[in-house]
Amino acid sequence: MGKIVSNFFISIDGVVESPDEWHFPYFDDEMGAVIGAGMETNKAFLMGRKLYDEWAAYWPTSTDEPFATFFNTTPKYVVSDSLTDPEWANTTVLPGDVEAVQQLKKETDGDIVVSGSATTVRWLLANGLLDELKLLVHPIAVGQGQRLFADGATHKLELVDSSTLSSGVLNLTYRPAS
Q1: Are 172 and 134 a contacting pair, CB within 8 Å?
Q2: How far is CA 41 from CA 16, 17, 38, 74, 111, in A?
Q3: 3-176: which CATH architecture?
Q4: 3-state DSSP helix/strand/coil percent for the chain, to nearest 5?
Q5: CA dihedral for 6, 10, 15, 18, sign (positive or negative)
Q6: Dihedral-angle region of residue 150 (phi above 0 means left; psi in -120 to 50 means alpha; beta otherwise)
Q7: Burial class (CB in 10 A: 0-12, 13-18, 19+), 16
Q8: Percentage with pLDDT > 90 across the chain
Q9: Average pLDDT of the residues in 16-31
Q10: What whole-number distance in Å separates Cα of residue 139 and Cα of residue 136?
Q11: What is the tens place of the pLDDT at every residue in 82-125?
């Protein structure tokens, strides 16, 4: 049985939007090793429609190796009630219901990774479907942009692993608390 693992680059004030504008000064070999370790257990991607549209516009023609090959060949599942004919190779559309995601977990041997897709991750948490939340917390306050958790949402989490990278980025792994 697979587990759903969500990964985010996140600022210290909780912003996950547009990490391309603030994340890269912190990316180094040490962070690359953390990301690479996650890629080794990744058997599929799960994403919402917005992230699918962004990635499908970029990765199929990208020459950014080895990531392009990895993203293009790994099975992708899109939770969407509006996407009907995905053009990106190895993409399957799942209806936006709990049973479809539970079935995906049953059929997958390994990690089903969500990179980004804050709205989808909030939905997964609210429905008890997320198994791990991995955050690379950057020591920068961005000040504006979409935050991981919406106002009024409460999710009790348990810290199961942590380390500090030499750049000051915190590498945190949480599981939903029982």
Answers
A1: yes
A2: 23, 25, 6, 12, 6
A3: 3-Layer(aba) Sandwich (3.40)
A4: 35, 30, 40
A5: negative
A6: beta
A7: buried
A8: 81
A9: 94
A10: 10
A11: 998 899 999 999 988 899 999 999 999 999 999 988 999 999 99
Q: Please list, in sequence order, all residues whose beta carbon lies within 8 angstroms of the beta carbon of residue 92, skipping any fewer than 6 positions away.
A: 75, 76, 77, 78, 86
How far the first Cα of the chain sits from its last, in Å, is 19
Of 88, 105, 96, give the one whose Cα is nearest residue 5. 105
Phi, psi dihedral angles at 82 (to 5 degrees): -115, -25
Element (H, E) at 104: helix 98-107
β pairing state of 76-79 and 42-48? parallel
Q: What is the pLDDT of residue 62?
A: 93
Tokens of 45: 């991607």
Amino acid, res. 154: T
Structure confidence at residue 97 (pLDDT): 87
